[in-house]
Write a structure and sequence with these properties.
Order of helices and strands: HEEEEEEEE
Number of strands: 8
Strand content: over 45%
CATH architecture: Beta Barrel
Number of domains: 1
Shape: elongated
C-alpha cells in the first residue's frame, strides 16, 4: 500500500515546479526608459522578440538583439525570474557612429503577470576598447506578451 504513494511522491518531486508562464514567442515593448547612455532605446531590434523555454526552475530565452541566448532561473517559491546572456564582436551603431563592440551583456529580471505575459527590467551593457562613445548602458522597463 505504501509503495504506490512513495512512487507518486518521488515522481512529483522529480518533475520540478510548474510555472504558470507558457513557453513560446514573446514580443517585448517599452514601458519606461530608465537610462540610455547609448541613444539605443529607439534603435531597431533592441526591443525585440524572444522564444521562452522553461524546464522546472530553469528558464531560457533566445532573444532577438544580436542573437543573444539568455539563461537563468526562477527565484525560489515565486513567479520571478532572472536571466543573463552575452555576445562578442558585435558591429552596430552606437551614439550615431559605427562601433565594434568587444562584448554586449544583457540582463533581464522578470515577473509573471499572467500565463501569457511578464514584465520587468532589462539592462544592456556595451563594452569596447575604443572609442569611448561605444561604452554605454541601457536600462528600461518592458512588458512581454506571448504571440
Amino acid at each position: 500500500m505504501w509503495r504506490p504513494c512513495l512512487t507518486l511522491l518521488v515522481l512529483s518531486a522529480a518533475c520540478g515546479r510548474h510555472h504558470t508562464l507558457q513557453d513560446g514567442t514573446y514580443a517585448f515593448s517599452l514601458k519606461e526608459s530608465l537610462r540610455d547612455d547609448c541613444n539605443f532605446t529607439g534603435a531597431p531590434g533592441v526591443l525585440s522578440q524572444g522564444a521562452l523555454k522553461t524546464t522546472g526552475h530553469v528558464v531560457a530565452l533566445d532573444y532577438g538583439l544580436f542573437g543573444i541566448d539568455l539563461n537563468g532561473n526562477y527565484l525560489a517559491d515565486v513567479e520571478r525570474m532572472t536571466l543573463d546572456g552575452s555576445a562578442a564582436n558585435v558591429n552596430t551603431q552606437v551614439n550615431g557612429g559605427e562601433c565594434l563592440l568587444d562584448l554586449v551583456g544583457l540582463h533581464l529580471d522578470g515577473a509573471t503577470t499572467s500565463s501569457t505575459s511578464f514584465e520587468g527590467i532589462m539592462a544592456v551593457r556595451l563594452d569596447a576598447r575604443r572609442p569611448d562613445r561605444c561604452v554605454c548602458e541601457v536600462w528600461f522597463k518592458y512588458v512581454a506578451n506571448r504571440q
